[in-house]
Write a structure and sequence with these properties.
single chain, alpha+beta, Alpha-Beta Plaits, 4-stranded mixed β-sheet, 11% strand, elongated
Length: 509
């Protein structure tokens, strides 16, 4: 008689159902409190695993190799990315106008931005577009306007490369002549810039913009207006005082950088330089002229012999010439110099922690221990300032102050360096280990509970067939053990044996 074996898939599904049934019976046999604890443990494990999967770190990459975009370009790019289902975890924008995109979607974001045609145009691209604008139907006025627009775009592209500028827009206004014989009004330039992070432009950047705009043949240095996106005005056309103020600020920044280069060994030092007009020298007092002393004049009469008077007028005596002045009289207003002399006031701020770190490391320094360090540091700073500022422009003395910082006055106890192998592990590592241990303990407990065999029920004496009696008398309890083992391992085979046994005359108990 041939025995049919079930297919492997059906056998695996039957074993899985048998295991699920045994697990369900094992859970139902436990107390209510135990079942609730097991359910809460399973829910906690699922929550931990879901949180770890959700909060896994995302690797970001700069879009277009860290290219910086203006505010208008960023708005357009964000709209395009959100239309393609980029959420807040897929990209982010930093303060410098750069876009970071998740590494798994960087190619998709690059294709989107390239199709938008945003970003700063290069000088080569602008010149190529200028060459394409030609033809027999282009008039002189259109050609002149196009050349002006090209020059404005070239100047804007140059200004955008300066430090601290995101984007720039240049407009040059050339008024038309009012008639023959009249001198035409001079041209003016307006520069609008967008700064990085909303910060103020440095005086050097403003001076560079002014020099670039003065490259135009009819635009002078004092005919440039510079504003930023926050409404700050750096230069105003026709205001020479604004130009001079910016030059002074640029000079102050340059001197501050020179001094910082000389004293960069002082950690956290700050330098402030202020240029003020040099006081005019006090003129020497002019000595008063002595009152002129009149010389004695001979009397108008004289003794002469007695003779007839002649009708001749006497010769007038010439008046004495005035004495020459000892000092020439100064003019009412001296001629105005092109560059007025200035002097520099220097303020150096040294952090308090610098002196404490230079003091004795084994004990808290006293004022007596700090005084030699302070004196030597101030001497070196004054020497460095004298080397950085030209002679005759330094206002004495240099002000050096000690400023408080976050470092405490008392030196904290220094711990030994922790090797790299003992560094703090990320929080998700112990969380994952704890979740794994919880799952393992839960699985072991369930398996131990399921392996416990239930108590065998006593078989009824009535209704037992002769085959059952013979089998029980022959094999005893070992036969029942083998039958249960067969049912547990292969339910399909046990069912086939049972059907054959019934077909041969056996009866169910």
């Amino acid at each position: 008689m041939r025995t049919e074996n079930p297919p492997p898939l059906a056998s695996a599904w039957a074993r899985l159902r048998a295991q699920a049934a045994r697990f369900r019976r094992s859970i139902l046999t436990r107390r209510t409190a135990t079942r609730w604890l097991l359910a809460l443990g399973a829910l906690a494990l699922l929550g931990v695993l879901g949180y770890l999967a959700r909060s896994s770190p995302v690797s970001y990459t700069y879009l277009l190799a860290g290219m910086q975009f203006s505010q208008d370009d960023l708005i357009e790019i964000q709209r395009a990315l959100e239309a393609k289902h980029f959420d807040a975890r897929s990209y982010r924008v930093d303060d410098e106008g750069r876009i970071e995109v998740a590494a798994n979607r960087i190619d998709e974001a690059t294709d989107i931005v390239i199709k938008l045609n945003v970003g700063k145009p290069s000088l080569t691209h602008i010149k190529n577009q200028a060459r394409e604008f030609s033809g027999p139907f282009v008039g002189p006025w259109e050609r002149e306007q196009h050349e002006l627009e090209v020059r404005e775009q070239v100047l804007a592209a140059m200004i955008q490369k300066l430090d601290g500028i995101m984007s720039a827009d240049v407009t040059i206004h050339r008024p038309k002549g009012r008639g023959a014989g009249r001198q035409p009004a001079r041209a003016t330039a307006f520069v609008y810039v967008e700064t990085r992070g909303g910060r103020e432009l440095s005086p050097k950047a403003v001076e560079a913009i002014q020099n670039l705009m003065a490259r135009e043949h009819d635009v002078t240095h004092d005919a440039v207006t510079v504003c930023d996106d926050h409404g700050r005005r750096y230069l105003v056309a026709g205001d020479p005082m604004g130009v001079r103020s910016n030059l002074l600020r640029a000079r102050e920044e340059e001197l501050s950088e020179k001094i910082l280069e000389q004293i960069n060994w002082v950690k956290g030092v700050g330098v402030t330089v202020q240029l003020i007009p040099s006081p005019a020298p006090t003129p020497a007092p002019i000595p008063a002229h002595p009152a002129p002393v009149e010389e004695p004049r001979p009397p108008d009469w004289e003794v002469v012999p007695n003779h007839p008077l002649e009708l001749v007028e006497p010769t007038p005596t010439p008046a004495p010439e005035p004495a020459p002045a000892l000092h020439p009289v100064a003019s009412a207003a001296p001629p105005k110099q092109a560059d007025e002399p200035v002097i520099a006031r220097v303020w150096v701020k040294v952090p308090r922690s610098f002196y404490y770190l230079k003091a004795l490391p084994n004990r808290e320094p006293s004022p007596g221990d700090l005084q030699p360090i302070v004196t030597r540091t101030e001497t070196l700073i004054r020497t460095a300032v004298a080397h950085a500022i030209p002679p005759g422009q330094l206002s004495e003395p240099v002000v050096i102050d000690t400023i408080p910082d976050d470092v405490p006055v008392s030196r904290p106890l220094s711990a030994s360096d922790v090797p790299a192998s003992r560094r703090v592990i990320s929080w998700w590592v112990p969380a994952g280990v704890g979740g794994g241990l919880m799952a393992a303990l839960l699985f072991i407990g369930v398996r131990l509970r399921a392996s416990r065999r239930p108590t065998a029920r006593p078989a009824s004496a009535s209704g037992r067939s002769r085959f059952e009696g013979v089998g029980a008398s022959a094999a005893g309890q070992s036969a029942a053990e083998r039958v249960r083992e067969l049912i547990r391992l292969n339910p399909e085979a046990a069912a086939g044996v049972l059907h054959r046994w019934i077909g041969q005359g056996g009866h169910l108990p």
